Amino acid sequence: MKKGSIYRFIAFALMFTLCFSQLGLLKTQAAGNPPANEKTLSIGKAAKGTFTEPEQTHWYKINPSKQEVAKFSHYRVKLQSDDEVNITVYSSLENAKNNVAFDRYMGYSYKDEPAQLDFPIAWTGPYYVKVEYYGSEDDMIEEDAEDGSTSPEPQPEEKTEVPYTISYEGASLPPSQMEAEECPAELSTSQKENGKGILRDLRTIRDAVLSKTASGKDLSSLYYKAAPFISSKMIIDKSMREQVYKDLVQLKGLFTDVAKNGASSTYMITSADQKAINDLYSIAYKSVPAALKKDLEKVAAQTKLKDVTDLNVSSVLVRAKLVSANSVSTKAETRYIVKLKDGANAKSFKIKAQSKSASIESINPLKQSAASFDNMFVIQLDDSNGKSFSTSSAQGKMTAKQIQALPETEFIEPVQEYHALSMDSQYPYQWSLNNTGKNDGTQHADIQYESLEKLLNGQKLKDTVIAVADTGVDSSLADLKGVVDTKTGYNYVDRSSNATDDNGHGTHVAGIIAASANNNYSMAGINSHAKILPVKILDASGSGDTEQIAYGIKYAVDHGAKVINLSLGGSYSRVLEYSLKYAYDHNVTVVAASGNDGMEELSYPASSAYAISVGASNRLDIVSDYSNYGKGLDITAPGSDIPSLVPDGNVTYLSGTSMATPHVAAVAGLLLSQNPGLKPKDVEKRLTDTAKDIKFDEKDAPVYDDEESPAEPPAPGYDYVSGWGRLNAYSAVSAQQLQAQVNTFVSTQKVVTGKAQSGSTVKVMNGSKTLGTAKADAKNTFSVNIPAQKADTVLQVVVTNGKASTSIRAVVQKAPAKPAVKAATNKDEYVTGTSKANFTVNVKNSAKKVIASGKADAKGAFKVKIPKQKENTVLYITATNSQKQESEEVKVTVRDVIAPNAPKVNPVSDADTAIKGTAEANASVVAKVNNKEIGKAKANAKGQYSITIKKQKAGTAISVTAADAANNTSKATTVKVSDKTPPAAPSVNAVTTKSTAVTGKAEANATVTVTVNKKSIGSAAANSKGQYSVKIKKQKEKTVLSVTAKDKANNTSKATTKTVTK
C-alpha cells in the first residue's frame, strides 16, 4: 500500500504498532541472542528458569508430535513471573534466528498477570520460544533525559534474581476473530471519538511501512520490548492516558495521510505535530528501564526526532531508513495509461504528447518484470514544486483531453485503485464444505465437499495452476507447503520475486482453494490438485492500482495459470478489460468477486464479460446482504463466515465476496484437472448449469417509490440476486466426470436427449416430479421420453453412475417459429408459405404422419408437393431447424374450391308444380326464370331434390343450379317448360251432303283433323285466327264426322262430332 509516517512513529509506533496484531507479520532484525542451548519443553510439564541480570535471553524448543498435531489445533504457552518478562514464540529455527515473529505471539508477564499465547499448530516445527528480561522500573534513574541526547549511565545495582515458570499444553480452539491485545494506544483511546480511526491508520502504517526495512523492523521490535513498561504506567496514570490521546488526535491528519499514501506521503509536519511527537517520545522514554532508554535515544538521534517541523513525511522516512528510497512511488492519481492504435508510431506519439502539455513529467511503456502490454504507455504527471497535478485536477483533465485528441491514441484513462473484497466476522467451522444445519444454518447448504472428496478419492488428476492475484500468499504454513509455487510467484507492489503475504487476505483465499486436506493441520482446502501461483498485486492495506493488477493478470497467464482468482474490485478500466481479454483469449478462466456494497451493480472486474462473477451466500443458503447483485452475476458461493488460514497460522473467519470467489476458482481448477482442454466458456457453463437454485422471492419486502424495476425480466432459471444459483462442487465435477450434456430441447419435443457415460441413469425432473427415466447407451447417448412441457419451464436432468451424480439445469426453450402457410384447396398439388431460412417443412395428415417434406430457401419460402387432397381434409404443417427442433403445428383444412356438376333436371311441363332431378349430395338447388328465383331445395344424401314451383307457361326457360357447402355453384341446367295442355275442341260449322269442306274455329295454328269411324278423311291447319277449312269428299247424310285439333306439342283436343245433313 502506500505510505507511512515516521517520527510520530518513533513516538507512537513504539507504543502503538502492537495494537494491530491481528494479521501483520513483523520482521525484526536478528536479535543479539540467537537460539542457543535451548531446552526442550514437554506438554503439560512446567519448566523453571531464572534471570540474574537485565538483557538476558533464554531459549526453549517445542517438538510437535503426530499425535498432538492430530489432537490439537493450538499450543497454549504460559509464562509466569513477578517481574516484566517478555516471551516470543517462533514457527521455525530460521525465523528464530532472524527474529521473525507474528506480533500476536509476542507477550509479556508481570506480577499477577501471566503471559498466555495460543500458538497454532500450523507449521511442521519444531517451534522455538524466546524468554527475555530487560530489567525493571527499579533499574531507571531518577532524572531521565528527554531531548534525544544520551542519558547518564544507570546507577549500578545489586544483581537480583528474576525467576519465572514456562509451560505449554494442547488446546482445540475453533476458528475465531482474534482480539488485538491491549496496548498503550488502546488504553488511551478506548472510549474516544477518534480512537477507532487512529488505531486503524496505525495498523496500516505498521504493516505497510515499518515491516519493509531493517530500520522499520528494529523500530517495531523495540516497541515490543517497551510495551510492558508503557502499559503498566498507563494503567494507573489517567493523566498520562489523556495526554497520549490528545497528542494522537493532533497527529490524526498525519496518520491518515500516511495510511493512505504510505512512503509517498507529502504531508508537511507542523509545529503542533512536532510538539505532539516530542510529548509522546517523552512519555515513552520515562516509562522504560535504562536498557531500553539507550535504544530510544538511538532512534531519536537517527531520525532527528526534534527537527522534523516543515519537513515532508516521505523525506523523513527515507532519511530515517524506515522506508527504502525506491518505495516512494508515484501516486495512482498522478498517472494515466494510454493505449495507442495498432500501427501507431510510439516515438511520434511521445513527441506530440510532451509538446502538448507541460504537466507531463514522463512517458514510459507499460512494462514491468515479465509482464508487458503492446502499445500501452504510462504518463506521469509532474507532481513536483508544489504543482500537485493529478488526474482529477483541471490541468490533468486538460492533458487527458489533449492526449485523446492525438491521432495515435486509442484511449486514455487514469490509473485507479482496487481493493480486496472481504469483511471480518466470527462463527463456527467450515460450514461451506459441510453444513450440518447447526448454528442456525440450513443442512446441506454447502458445496457438497464430502461427496466430492469421495468421488475424487484415488483418482489421478493433473495439477492445475491457479493464480491468486492478491496480497500475496504465505507458503510457510504446513497446509500450504508444496502447494504454493514460490519460485514462479511475483510481487508487483515491491517489484520483487517475494510474493509473501503482508496482509492475510491472499493467504486466506489460497487456503480456501488448496489448503492440504487430511494432514491433521489447520483446515481442508477444496482442490487437492491445485498449485497456487502467488501474484502480489495488492499491498499491505489490501489496495492495488490499475498497473499492478494488469501486470499481475498478464504475468499469471504467461506463467502457466489456467485459473486466476481476483478477490478484489473497483471501477471499470479499459486497461484491465484488455488484460482480461488477453486471459480469455489464452483460455485462462478468470473468477472475480461481485463486490460488498449490497448494491444492484457488480464491481469491476466482476462485471466484465471475460470473468465469472461471484456473489456470496450464507449458511442459510441465502444471498448475503452485502453481496452486490444485478444483471451479469453468474453464480454465488459461500462467502459469509468462511474460516481459512492467515499468515500467523490461525484459521480465521472472514466474510465477503472475496471468500466466495476462491470456492468457485477451486472448482474451476478441478474441472480443468479433469479436462485441461476446457475453455473459459465451458468452465462457466459447467459451473452455472450445475448450480443449486437458491433464489428467494420476498413477498413482503417494502417497495420504495424511487426503486426502479429491472429493465427486463430475468431468463428462466436465472435470478438477478443469486445468478444461476449457488455453487455445487460435487455436481459440477460429477457432470464433468460423467461427460453429461443435455441437448437443447423445445416445448414441442417429447423427448430429452444428450450424452452421458454409458450405463448412467438419467432422470428428468420437474421440481419433485419425475417426468421420465432412461439409461445412457453404449454410444454414451441417452433419450428420455417425457410429456411435452411449456416453454420456459425449468427442469433438472439428474445423471447418476457409481459415486458420481449431477443435476443439470435444463430450460425448455420456445419452439422454432411456426411457418406461415397459405390456404390449401382440393385443387392444389403444393403446400406453400414461409418459414425461417433453410428450415425443413413437414406436411402431416390428420393422423400426424408425414406425407410430404420440403426445404425453405434462403429467404424462407417453401413449396412442398403433395397429393391432391379432398375438401375438408385436415393437414398439419411444421418447420424444423438444423438441430431437429420442430415448431408447433399449423393446422390447415383443405378448402373446397371445385364446383358441383350441373344438376340433372327432369322434364318440366306447364302442368308441373315441382322441378325434380339429381345433384351433388346435400347441395342447395335453385331454380330461376329470368334470373329470378322461383324455388329452391336441398338435395338429400343421394343427391335427389324436388323444388316446388308454380305452374309455368309452356316454353318458359328455367335455369337450375346446385351449390355445395363451400358455396361453389355449378353451371346451370336450363329446361324449357313443355306444353302438355290439349287445345279446346274445335267448333265445327254445319256439314251437308253437298259440302266438300269442313269449316270452323280451333286453336290458332292447330292442325285440324276430320275422321269418320277413326279414319281420317282430311286435315288442315288453322290460321292465326283459328279459322280452318278441311277439304273432304261429299259425305252421305247422317254420316258422323269427328273433328279434333292438335297443337304444335301434339296435344290433341277432344273430338267435336258433327252429323252430315241433307
From TrEMBL:
Cite the GO molecular-function annotations of the record: serine-type endopeptidase activity
Its required cofactor(s), as named, are: Ca(2+)
Q: Which residues form the active site?
A: D470, H505, S658
| Pfam families in the cross-refs | Big_6, Peptidase_S8
Q: Which Gene3D superfamilies match?
A: 2.60.120.380, Immunoglobulins, Peptidase S8/S53 domain
**Which InterPro entries would you find in this protein's record?**
Big_6, Ig-like_fold, Peptidase_S8/S53_dom, Peptidase_S8/S53_dom_sf, Peptidase_S8_His-AS, Peptidase_S8_Ser-AS, Peptidase_S8_subtilisin-like, Peptidase_S8_subtilisin-rel
UniProt keywords (A-Z) are: Calcium, Hydrolase, Protease, Secreted, Serine protease, Signal
The UniProt record lists the keyword Nucleotide-binding = no
A single cellular component GO annotation: extracellular region
- Can you tell me which family this protein belongs to? Belongs to the peptidase S8 family.
The name on file for this protein is Cell wall-associated protease WprA
Q: Which organism is it from?
A: Priestia megaterium (Bacillus megaterium)
The gene name reads wprA
